[in-house]
Amino acid sequence: ELKGIPVRIEFGLRDLESNQAIVADRIGLGKDPVPLVDIAERTESLLEMVQAHMYNRALVHRQSMWHKGIK
Length: 71
Description:
single chain; 3 strands
């Protein structure tokens, strides 16, 4: 996976024949076939889920690196 690409949409000849595309995410949820009529809604919800996951992971990392100074 390339850095900065949160969602990958795979589309080939067989997918065209079956009116679907394969949607894969970057956080490890896997690949899912999605009907073409639902691709926009599914991609939007997946992007929101990826963003929330990445934000929470960054927040945990920031909090683990934060050290209070001694007064």
